[in-house]
């Protein structure tokens, strides 16, 4: 009996949890991963790929069309669009990454605690999360940034705050599905603490589901940051952000549509890539969802 309990209580490693998932990823998912990797590399090596300093202005080259000395043209201040796209990718990816990682950690802790303990703790924590979920994420993020100020830290906090309830709910549901299984009961019978059961045994089992939510909310974070910048609540100029570039481009949309076109395409491609990754991970975790659709 003790050997059976010990074997059942042996923790599942994250490597084992993801090995089967990675083997079932489809081609579109790998395409999404490749796009994200390329954009990350472009952001990292932006100083080497940029043809001009992103904030350098040239009055003689205002609204220059694509080609010549400017690969994607120049904006109304004569700044190189290609260079600003590369450096803008740093801010879009960094804000999305830090915001979603913050929401992932805080939301997962809340959800795991609520799901494992149940009772009043579960009710109280989930009611708080439901109150936050009652507000549209963009409107709530807009209100928070307007109150705190449009700095990079505040934008990260605002986006993380809106995303935390989603991670809490997915983690809670996954923990509830695991907490009464045999390996968890074996851990309790062996006297393991609740923290050890949660983080060494249950957490690896729910990681794939949490990672699906992470990739999907990365797309939401990028859209939210771009939306905030578009309405004037993003990082202050001359910091290059994709949403800010779209906003500036709309001032000359009739004469120089490429000013708004290229940053819009960048946002579209990045959001599409994260959605492809999220959908592929979801289908790999539960192939029945793919067959049902």
Automatic annotation (TrEMBL):
Compartments in which it is found: Cell membrane
Protein name listed in UniProt: Peptide/nickel transport system permease protein
Parts of the chain that traverse the membrane: 27-50, 91-116, 128-149, 155-177, 198-219, 257-278
Membrane topology: Multi-pass membrane protein
Domain of life: Bacteria
Keywords of this entry: Cell membrane, Membrane, Peptide transport, Protein transport, Transmembrane, Transmembrane helix, Transport
Entry keyword Transmembrane: yes
Domain (ABC transmembrane type-1): residue spans on this chain: 89-278
Pfam families: BPD_transp_1, OppC_N
Cross-referenced InterPro entries: BP-dependent_transpt_permease, MetI-like, MetI-like_sf, OppC_N
Annotated family: Belongs to the binding-protein-dependent transport system permease family.
PANTHER family membership: D,D-DIPEPTIDE TRANSPORT SYSTEM PERMEASE PROTEIN DDPC-RELATED, OLIGOPEPTIDE TRANSPORT SYSTEM PERMEASE PROTEIN APPC
């Amino acid at each position: 009996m003790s050997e059976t309990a010990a074997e059942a209580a042996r923790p599942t490693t994250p490597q084992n949890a993801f090995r089967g998932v990675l083997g079932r990823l489809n081609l579109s998912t790998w395409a999404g991963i490749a796009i994200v990797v390329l954009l990350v590399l472009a952001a990292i090596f932006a100083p080497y790929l940029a043809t001009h300093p992103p904030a350098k202005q040239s009055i003689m080259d205002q609204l220059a069309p694509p080609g010549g000395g400017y690969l994607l043209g120049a904006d109304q201040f004569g700044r190189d669009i290609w260079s600003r796209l590369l450096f803008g990718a740093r801010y879009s990816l960094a804000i999305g990454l830090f915001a979603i990682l913050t929401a992932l950690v805080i939301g997962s802790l809340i959800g795991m605690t609520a799901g494992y303990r149940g009772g009043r703790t579960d009710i109280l924590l989930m009611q708080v999360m439901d109150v936050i979920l009652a507000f549209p994420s963009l409107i709530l993020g807009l209100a928070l940034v307007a109150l705190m100020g449009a700095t990079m830290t505040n934008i990260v906090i605002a986006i993380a705050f809106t995303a935390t309830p989603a991670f809490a709910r997915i983690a809670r549901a996954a923990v509830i599905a695991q907490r009464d299984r045999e390996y968890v009961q074996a851990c309790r019978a062996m006297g393991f603490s609740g923290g050890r059961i949660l983080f060494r045994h249950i957490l690896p089992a729910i990681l794939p589901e949490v990672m699906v939510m992470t990739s999907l909310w990365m797309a939401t974070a990028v859209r939210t940051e771009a939306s905030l910048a578009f309405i004037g609540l993003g990082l202050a100029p001359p910091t290059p952000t994709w949403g800010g570039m779209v906003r500036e481009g709309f001032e000359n949309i009739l004469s120089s549509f490429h000013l708004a076109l290229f940053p819009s395409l960048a946002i579209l491609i990045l959001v599409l890539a994260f959605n492809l990754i999220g959908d592929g991970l979801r289908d790999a975790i539960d192939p029945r969802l793919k067959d049902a659709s």
